[in-house]
Amino acid sequence: MVTLEEVLFTIILNLFPILILILPYVFIRKKLIGKLYLRIYIGILVFYMVYWILPVIFQLSAEPEVLEDPTNNQGLMFLGAHLGSLISLFAFFPLVTLPFIFFVAPFIALLYTWNQLRKEDGSIESNLKTITYQLKESPIKRIRSELLRNDWTREKEILKLLIILLPISLYLLQVILKISGLEGESLTSGDTALGWFLEILFVYLAIFIFSIELLFSSQIALKGRYFGEAIRKQTFKSLYTVGAPISILSIVLFIAESATESATATTSIFIIIYFFGYFIMASVIFVLFLKIFEPISILIFIKLIDWWKNKKEKIRRIDYSTFYYGIIIAFGAILLYLILNLFVFIPLFESIFADSENIINSAKFVPETVNPTLMDAILFDLMNVFNFIVIILIPIIIIAGLLAYIMKYIKTQFIAFSSYLPVIIIFSIILWFFNFQPLINFVSDDYWITGQISSSNFLNINFYTLRTAALNADLEKSVVLNALALPYLYTRYVFNLIIWTLIILYGKKIFKSKNLPIDDNHVEKVVFSTINDYISYDDYTQEQAQYLITKKKRELIVTQNRREKKLRIF
Fold this sequence. Notes:
The protein is α+β, with helices and mostly antiparallel strands and about 575 residues long. The protein has 2 domains: about 5-310 and about 320-505, no CATH class; about 510-570, no CATH class. Helix content is about 65%, strand content about 10%. The chain contains 18 helices and 9 strands. The strands form 3 sheets. Strands 6-7-9-8 form a 4-stranded antiparallel β-sheet, with no helix packed on it. It has a 3-stranded mixed β-sheet with strand order 1-4-5. Strands 2-3 form a two-stranded antiparallel ribbon. α2 (about 30-55) packs antiparallel against α9 (about 260-290) and α7 (about 195-215) runs antiparallel to α8. The N and C termini lie far apart (about 85 Å).
C-alpha cells in the first residue's frame, strides 16, 4: 500500500529537475540571455513530459522495477545524474536534429524558386537576373532583435499548421507500420524501431514546412514582387482547408481499422498516443528555436541564390592558392581529437564505466540482468552525459571552431568547406573501420531512450520514478524504415557542423549596407560584412572585391562586400 508520504516524496523528487532548471531564469529573465533561456527551458519541460512521463501509459499494468540501494544514500546522486542525462538527451535536438532541418530547407526553397522562375514569362536565365533579396543585418544581430521583440505570432502559426498535419501523419504512420510489419509492436517488448520513425517523419515534414516559410522570411523578390509570401499564403491556406478534413478522415479510418483488429487495438492506440505526444514535443521544440536558426538558414538560401545568379563569375574567380590551409587544419583537428581520446576520454571512460557492457545490459527496457540497481541507473545516466560530450559536443567545438577560424585566411567559404570537411569525413570513416571513435559519427544509434517505471528508497522512504531505459532500435529489420532513415542518419552530423560553423563565423560580424552608383540611372545596394584581419595593399587593389573603410569609436573597420540587390532609379 502506497502511503501519502511516499506519494508526496515521489512528486517532489520527480519535479526536482524542472524546479532546479527554473531557478536561473528568475535572475536573468529581463536580459537577452533570459529570453533565450526561457525557450530552452520550455523545450526541456516538454521533452521531460514526453520522454519521462508519457511512457507510463505503456506500463500501467506492469510491476515497477525495484532499484536496490544498499547504502540508502544514492538518491541525490541519482537525481543529479538523471538531470544531466535529461539535458544531454534534449541538447541533441538543437545541436544535431534542428541544424539538419535548417540546412536542408534552403535547398528545397531553391527548388520552389526554380519552379517560380519556370512559370514566369521569359527564360529561367533571364528571370533569374531579376531576383532580388534583402540582407540588412548580420544573423546574430537578427537573432538578438527577434528574441528581444518577444513576438510569438509566427511560432504559433507554424505550430498550428504542424498540429493540423498531425492526424495525416498519424495515418501515414499506421500505413508504414503495416508495411513494415511493426503494427503490433509494443514499447514494453524492449525491441522497436518506432522511435526512429517518429523522429525521421517529423524531420522531413518540418523541412517541407520551413522551406515554404523561408521563401517568406527571406523576402526574396522576382521583378520587384515578393513571391514567397504568395506561395506561403496559398500553401498554408490549402493545408488548413484540405488538411483539416483529411485529418478528421484519417482519425476515423484509424479508429475503424483498430476496431476490426481487437488483438492489436489497444497497442495501436497507445502507439498513437505516444506519437501525438512525441510529434507535439518535436513541433514545440522546433518553433522555440525557429528564430535562433532561421537567420543562418536565410543566409544559406541567399548565398545559394547568389551563386546561382553569378556561378560563372564565381567559378572563374575561385582562388585555390589557400586550398591546402583547410587540409592542414583538418589534420590538426583529427590529431587533437585523437590525443583527447587516447589520453583523456578513453582512460576516463574506463575508470568510470569499468563494466560498461553490464551497465548497458542493465539499462535495457527488458534488462538481461535480473534486477538492475540504483547505481546501474546512475551509471547509465552518466554514460549518456559522457557520450553526449565526446560524440556530439567536443567534435562540434573542435571541427566547427577550427573551420570558422581558418576561414579568416581562406578567401572563399567554398574552398574552406571543400578542403576541410572531406578530410574529416574520410578519416572519420577510417577511424570507425578500425573501431575507434570518429570525429563524425556515421553509425545510427543502437537504442532509443525512454523511461521505465521503477522504485527505490531514499532516506528510508520509498519513491517511484522512471529510470532511463534503452529500447533496441533495429532499423535493418524494416526495409522501409531503413530507406527513410538513410539520408538523415548519414548526413546529420555533417550538416550540423556547417550550421554551427556559420553561427561561430558570423557571431561577431557586422553588416553595413551602402548604395554605390553604377551609372547615371542606376545604383547598386551592396551589403558589407566585417573581416577579421587587416588586408594587404594587393588585396585592397584587386578587382574581385570591394572594400568599405569606416571609422567607429577610434577603430577602423574594413568590410568586404556581399552583393545584395540592384535598385533602379527612374
